[in-house]
Amino acid sequence: MPEPQPAPGTAPAPTSTPGDAPADLPVDAPFVEAAGLTRQWNGAGGVADVSLAIPRGGFVSILGPSGCGKSTLLRLLAGLETPQAGSIRIDGRDMTHAPAAARGLSMVFQSYALFPHLSVAENILFGMRVRRAPRAERAARLAEAVAMLGLEGLERRRPAELSGGQRQRVALARAVVSGHPLCLMDEPLSNLDAKLRHSVRRDIKALQRRLGLTVVYVTHDQTEAMSLSDIVVLMRAGRVEQIAPPAALYAAPVSIFAAEFVGEPPMAMVQGAALGMPGRVVGIRPEKLRLAAPGAGDLTGRVVDVEFLGAGSRVVIEHAAARGLVASVAGAAGLAPGTEIGLCLPEDDRVLFDALTGRAERGPQQDRGAQDRQTGPRDGRKAPSPQPPEPQQSNL
């Protein structure tokens, strides 16, 4: 069989480099660095002035709702789109205008991008054949990938003989065995069922750690982002809203948008005037909200619904000055819809937001985790702060 040529999802190791790597590159320099990236169409959509720094061996998720620019950012890093402004450096080399094949990365698309005439094994090993990897290494990597992704017994099948979930697992296996130190993933688990998605998620993280891969992972699923990532980049309307480790993003959101996007159920929002704090919105996580007798807490609400989840229950509560009030309690709640209930919001667990701008004033326990809420690289280079949309009044 003649040696194959590069194809979607793989790229051969570059024989020439568009940019020269500095000889004195610091050991702790970012492996992937984007500075001021802008790519829009007729002045709208895409991304605007986005900066981030990704450490070598890091797992970074780009999270956000549909249309926020996360896939555009990934395509810019991959070389599938050209920025109108800004720069991209990979391993110290300027790759801003380098073709995708020269960037030394693999990519998993939401679509499968498999060769219909090749078997599962041939698709998985395609990148390694391009690089002329030794036969023994190819066999070992194939066996590992097949076992990890549950593809045993399918090695000789063609893509047309596979289900949608199996095809995506083949595309994922092809990327992780390619040997490139950087792997970009664009919602790779979206076609898998819930049980398999949870299993493959753990396997992706284990393989990333074992091989020391640097992974940039695009998703709209906060569960994937929070469980997989070292750092989460939360995007909104083409800009970075917050960059933080998952725990800091959850505990100390920088805006009402971040607070309500992250968490299941999301953070509840209470009009500050109801708590003697006019001009503010008070956020509280479900596990921090305490139930009390009617009239005994900070607020008195009415039970709307109770969701029993086995180990615990979610009590959905209605109050005229709040939205999203949910209390997480252990075991069965024993409350009927329509019951009046007191609500305690411990001061140390409140997150305060400006009611006009929606930006955080302080986080739980006097701005705990403020260091993690910066919105740019930590390497001393300047990065623009995310700009919120037009100031808006709280509609609580």
Automatic annotation (TrEMBL):
One of its GO terms (molecular function) is ATP binding. Residues 1-26, 355-396 are annotated as: Disordered. It comes from the Bacteria. Residues 359-382 have a biased composition (Basic and acidic residues). Residues 12-23 have a biased composition (Low complexity). InterPro entries: AAA+_ATPase, ABC_transporter-like_ATP-bd, ABC_transporter-like_CS, ABC_transpr_FbpC, ABC_transpr_MalK/UgpC-like, Mo/tungstate-bd_C_term_dom, NA-bd_OB-fold, P-loop_NTPase. Keywords: ATP-binding, Cell membrane, Membrane, Nucleotide-binding, Translocase, Transport. Residues 1-11, 385-396 have a biased composition (Pro residues). Residues 32-262 form the ABC transporter domain. Belongs to the ABC transporter superfamily. PANTHER family: MALTODEXTRIN IMPORT ATP-BINDING PROTEIN MSMX, TREHALOSE IMPORT ATP-BINDING PROTEIN SUGC. This is ABC transporter ATP-binding protein. It comes from Paralimibaculum aggregatum. The lineage of its organism: Bacteria, Pseudomonadati, Pseudomonadota, Alphaproteobacteria, Rhodobacterales.
